[in-house]
């Protein structure tokens, strides 16, 4: 699914246009954000693509929603 990752001050958020949903990121797997998963406040886990650490935000990327068992 397409998602937009953006920074609000020091916090990250993810906007999912198909659901018209914007949720703050509460944890990240990788310190540099890319190539791992993020956990949103609503409990969703999204796998993000592997991008360079200096990728500028906001950016729209293809993410994959992970089940809680993954």
Report on the structure:
There is one protein chain. The protein has 70 residues and is mostly beta strands. It has a single domain (2-66), classed as OB fold (Dihydrolipoamide Acetyltransferase, E2P), CATH 2.40.50.240. 0% of the residues lie in helices and 50% in strands. It has strands at 2-8, 11-16, 21-28, 37-40, 45-47, 59-62, 64-66. Strands 6-1-2-3-4-5-7 form a 7-stranded antiparallel sheet, with no helix packed on it. The mean pLDDT is 94.
Descriptive labels:
mainly beta, seven-stranded antiparallel beta sheet, OB fold (Dihydrolipoamide Acetyltransferase, E2P), 70 residues
> Percent range for helical residues?
under 10%
Helices, by number, come to 0
Approximately how much beta-strand content do the residues carry? over 45%
CATH architecture level-2 label: Beta Barrel
Round the Cα radius of gyration to an integer and report it: 11 Å
Instruction: Indicate the structural class.
Output: mainly beta
Mean pLDDT over the full residue set = 94
CA(first)-CA(last) distance: 17 Å
Short description:
This protein is mainly β and 70 residues long.
Question: Secondary-structure map with pairings?
Answer:
Elements: E1 2-8, E2 11-16, E3 21-28, E4 37-40, E5 45-47, E6 59-62, E7 64-66
Antiparallel strand pairs: 1-2, 1-6, 2-3, 3-4, 4-5, 5-7
GO biological process, one term: nitrogen fixation
Keywords: Plasmid
Organism: Rhizobium sullae (Rhizobium hedysari)
